[in-house]
């Protein structure tokens, strides 16, 4: 198949990844290419040059408009609309069999656009007003929508499941996150360092549990880092930097428990399954899709309660490492995910052809 992959342009689609959406698009492009498909990645121009790249924007959004996400800045909105609108036009004229839309733009959802090319849209965020209406109005035979978890589907479609909407769990390549049969007794946390990821709460919980903790990730919110996270560092609490995949896998794998601390309705939690693949059980806030994803590989605490999370750390440490690894192997591998993507592409292409011949 000739596949257009439209990514969001807030950050480059390149390692080391700033977050799950970047990792999702990179691994999707890489995996589809490895299966023999022709993939063109529509993303920021400073994304991974190893792909066939058609830039949506010359450089990623945060470089041109730093810190302006969700501010309603008219200049940013116009900048993004111009980039995505032109990209959608090139996709429609590009002879593609299917578009996989991983952007946060409303423009690829327009029925007049999905009528021109079979489209699969993957939603990676909770519903918000700037996109919700366009998602709900986009249903058509030539458009499929995926969510990453059942809890995310409930958030987007509280009235119940709708035709053309399915759960597509994220997947990882377990060979990139090698299993280790024992840890060193420490805890680890990974992700974008922002308030809604709860970095400071992981620190409080680790301290109360008496465990060393290493943090990894990009310091996306500078004020939060300087005011609420950095002052808590020292002693057994350290920051290990923002590492690429292989280096991060080594660091994660040496720990004994992973702390997952979402302070929002996390739609999936890619970092949790990466740690689970290495063999780490998870102590997590029970929010969003956490319980659905982590299952028997974790122990849970009420959202925002760092004292209860400290207790959950003790319970998680009693879970065998093989339990966490086996859960990833059963449900969240790269191959399971790519198989599902290929089925969706075939279904939406067939639906579009049936509509065209009707």
From TrEMBL:
Keywords: Glycosyltransferase, Transferase
Pfam family, one: Glyco_trans_1_4
EC class name: transferase
InterPro entries xref list: Glyco_trans_4-like_N
Top-rank taxon: Bacteria
SUPFAM superfamilies the record matches: UDP-Glycosyltransferase/glycogen phosphorylase (SSF53756)
Name by which UniProt lists this protein: Glycosyltransferase
Organism: Methylobacterium adhaesivum
